Amino acid sequence: MMYQCGSCGGVYQDLMADGSLYFHACPPLEVDPRGRVVERPDKRNENLVMGEPGEAPRMKAEGRGRVELEPGWQPPAPAAEPRGLLARAWERIRASVTTG
Asked: Which pLDDT band holds residue 9 (cuts at 50, 70, 90)?
């Protein structure tokens, strides 16, 4: 079964191809100029933590939950990448190297 995270929009399966379980955790939003990781405030983290003795393990953070996707769901085709300044500069560099 495929799921979509309500916090980060990530799409994933609980069961991996090798039979092991996958526990989704949202990626950070960014790394600030000082090198600190900026986490999203509504982060979902399905990894389990132990509670008090005798209690069942619980999920680290529910976030905004998750939605079960329809069977056979396929991701949309990627949009064409815009031809940015960096891509054009890289093409010029590559052309100058190959043509001498």
From this structure: very high
Q: What is the Cα–Cα distance from 35 to 44, expressed in whole angstroms?
A: 22
pLDDT of residue 85: 66
Rg (Cα) of the chain, in Å, rounded?
21
Other CB atoms within a 10 A radius of the CB of residue 6 amount to: 16
Q: What predicted TM-score, i.e. pTM, was given to this entire model?
A: 0.68
Number of Cβ atoms within 10 Å of the Cβ of 59: 14
Question: What's the token pair of residue 28?
Answer: 């950070």
Residue 96: φ, ψ to 5°: -70, -30
Q: Where are the alpha helices (DSSP H) in the chain?
A: 85-99
Q: Does 90 or 68 have the greater pLDDT score? A: 68
**Encoded tokens for 63:** 């976030």
Q: Give the whole-number percent of the chain exceeding pLDDT 70.
A: 88
Number of C-beta neighbours around residue 91 at 10 A: 11
